[in-house]
Write a structure and sequence with these properties.
Elements (H helix, E strand, L loop, with lengths): L2 H22 L5 H23 L4 E4 L13 E9 L1 H4 L8 E8 L2 E9 L4 E4 L14 E5 L5 H10 L2 E5 L2 H10 L4 E5 L4 H13 L3 E3 L17 E5 L1 H11 L1
Parallel strand pairs: 1-2, 6-7, 6-8
Antiparallel strand pairs: 2-3, 3-4, 4-5, 8-10, 9-10
Helix pairs in contact: 1-2, 4-7, 5-6
């Protein structure tokens, strides 16, 4: 099985596990659902990667940072449940599972599962999004749309669309349900590694908001900002962010 295939399989199966947990705990308090989802998906991914790629390092949101990853050639970067808040809310589908592989300095494979939508987007072959509408849509957080998104909206003459997890937002751009995702104010490598791998495979622009490259498996996993968008909007969006 290739790394691309493995990423897709693990993200999808972790998503299936999360759907089952969500149903099983439908009457439990949201906090209990969220805690069970984080732990259940993390445990599955760690066990599966240990069995399938025993020589590889892993960086997971739900585990202590093993610094051995900094000298490893291959590091899996995973977010077992991206959008924990949305997972805890009945009926929401804007949460995701992220599985990415960093190898020799670059993202080498990635998968974003959207379990409640029945979709997994995975490298190496991700279809380009369809033609955009006349008014571009800028997807933002439900709770804290950053000022940078407002600046991009004003520059492009677009509209803001609220959504949950980072993976769901990038997937919306990949699928043609939005044209731009811009974020500033705090994220980590596991929030964006798999979504960025998928976006690149679809031919989208990906960068920091200053236009510099997104780099992974760094000493500090904090990666606080990013821009993912259709290439025709990249120059104008970056100009608005300067």
């Amino acid at each position: 099985m290739t790394d691309h295939e493995l990423a897709a399989e693990l993200a999808t199966r972790a998503g299936d596990l999360l759907l089952a947990l969500r149903q099983e705990l439908a009457d439990a308090p949201p906090a209990a659902r969220k805690a069970a989802g984080d732990k259940g998906s993390h445990d599955y991914l760690m066990e599966a990667l240990s069995a399938r790629r025993p020589g590889d390092a892993v960086l997971s949101e739900e585990a202590a940072d093993d610094r051995a990853r900094l000298s490893a050639r291959r590091v899996w970067i995973v977010d077992p449940l991206d959008g924990t808040r949305e997972f805890g809310e009945a009926g929401r589908d804007d949460w995701a599972v992220h599985v990415a592989l960093w190898c020799d300095g670059e993202l080498a494979a990635g998968a974003v599962a959207l379990p409640a939508q029945g979709v997994t987007l995975a490298t190496p072959a991700v279809p380009a999004p369809p033609d955009p509408p006349a008014v571009p849509r800028i997807v933002v957080s439900r709770t804290r749309p950053p000022d940078v998104a407002v600046r991009v909206r004003d520059r492009l003459g677009g509209t803001l669309v609220e959504m949950g997890s980072a993976g769901a937002k990038v997937a919306a751009v990949v699928q043609g349900r939005a044209e731009v995702y811009v974020h500033a104010g705090g994220q980590y490598e596991w929030d964006s590694a798999a979504p960025v791998a998928v976006a690149r495979a679809a031919g989208l622009h990906t960068s920091r908001i200053d236009g510099s490259p997104l780099r992974y498996n760094r000493n500090d996993p904090l990666l606080p900002d990013l821009l993912v968008c259709r290439t025709e909007y990249a120059d104008a969006a970056l100009a608005a962010l300067r």
